Amino acid sequence: MTGDLALAGSELTLAYDGRTVVHGAGIELCRGQVVALVGPNGSGKSTLLRSLARLHAPQSGRVTLDGGDDAFALKPKDFARQVTLLTQSRPTPGGVRVKDVVAYGRHPYRARFGAGDADGHIHVAKAMRMTGVEAMAERAVDELSGGELQRVWLATCLAQDTGVVLLDEPTTFLDLRYQVEILDIVRELADDHQVAVGVVLHDLDQAAAVADRVVLMHSGVVRAAGTPADVLTAGLLSEVYGLRIEVNVGDDGHLHTRPIGRHTARVTI
Ligand SMILES: Nc1ncnc2c1ncn2[C@@H]1O[C@H](COP(=O)(O)OP(=O)(O)OP(=O)(O)O)[C@@H](O)[C@H]1O
Hints:
Elements (H helix, E strand, L loop, with lengths): L4 E12 L2 E12 L3 E5 L6 H8 L7 E6 L3 E2 L5 H5 L2 E4 L11 H6 L16 H12 L14 H14 L4 E5 L7 H18 L2 E5 L3 H7 L2 E6 L2 E6 L1 H4 L2 H8 L3 E5 L5 E5 L2 H7 L1
The structure holds adenosine-5'-triphosphate.
The site of adenosine-5'-triphosphate (ATP) has 10 residues, from helix 1.
């Protein structure tokens, strides 16, 4: 049901080689909702998202599914049927066709030697249609542009058909049209398929437009969490990003942010 808790991290402390970079962070992803993680470079967004996807074991704290199961205790395939992650960097396999990369998203449903998963081709076709990569199905992935490749990886995640979708900067490399289309897909997943979406975004206006809730990170700490109107305030953003940021409501009803750089002062001298 919409609003039911799907995936949560509580009191997560995360470190690399003994250096703590996320301090006691909490985050909740609910069905049918989009949560945007925002914050400056190095504030811990990706590390937190990777921990939710079980790719980074916490020093302390818990990641739970459906309000109970310890995510780290599940079998890999069981977890992969419930949660997928689009990471920032991925190796690009040489000579492999797009349709085969997308089909890889079905790995949690296949038995050994590729048996099972009778409906897999339906999910693969749907994911390719949603992301607009059908026309490149036969092309080798190492021949694609950065933006084309980004959409292929997103299709691979969607083919996994999970109730939780985690996306780390999914609009990077994309031209304006595809940025908008990816954000439309994000909303569609939540609204039409009751997916719980957690998405790292640098563009605060995109976060305001797509998210039901925003988690603002700063120096490894969740500085604020709530609705876009609660979190994307001039005061909080100016403090966290270390420069003056104005926030206005646009004609579209969404919040719009405007950083005020030093160049503004320079040209008026
Ligand atoms: N593999 C790693 N090994 C050691 N330290 C790392 C590693 N990955 C990230 N860090 C450090 O952890 C901290 C948080 O990084 P993280 O990538 O989670 O931040 P972020 O908010 O996602 O940043 P960005 O917006 O630049 O992607 C940073 O200080 C970073 O240098």
